[in-house]
Amino acid sequence: MSAAGLEVAAPKKSCEDERCPFHGGLKVRGKLISGKAVSTSGSGFVVVQLEYLHKVRKYNRSERRRSRISAHLPACLDVREGDSVTIAECRPLSKTISFVVVQSRGAS
Ligand SMILES: [Zn+2]
Question: Mean pLDDT across the stretch 56-85?
Fold first, then answer.
């Protein structure tokens, strides 16, 4: 356990971001999800793609599904396209953002 009640290491850098779970006042609760950053062109947020298997009982097979979640990117974290990231659920920060990036593990 580290800062913000998360089981991830706190980033090495510090930041002044109010919406940072490590250095600001943002609380996280709920889901903790791993995914891949597919777009980092937005300012202050990244788009994370999740891939998962969905069981189709009728055919006893699984189909691959994907979904995308926008997540706030605190100033202390560096994320590039293709990086594996962990995102944590937080309060809604905007219409489409209610997750925050808490860890970047680089390209996988
Ligand atoms: Zn920070």
Answer: 96
Question: How many Å lie between the centroid of ligand 1 and the Cα of residue 11?
Answer: 7
pTM here is 0.88
Q: Options 3.40.50.300, 2.40.50.1000, 2.60.40.10, 3.40.50.2020; which CATH number does 3-107 get?
A: 2.40.50.1000
How many A from CA of 19 to the centre of ligand 1?
8
Judge contact between 92 and 70, C-beta under 8 A: no
Q: What is the model's pLDDT at position 1?
A: 44
* d(CA 14, ligand 1 centre) in Å: 5
25 C-alpha to center of ligand 1: Å? 10
With the C-alpha atoms ordered 92, 66, 46, 20, is the resulting torsion angle positive or negative?
positive
Collapsed DSSP state (helix, strand, coil) of residue 3: helix
User: What are 44-58's pLDDT values in tens digits?
Assistant: 999 999 999 999 999
pLDDT at 4: 62
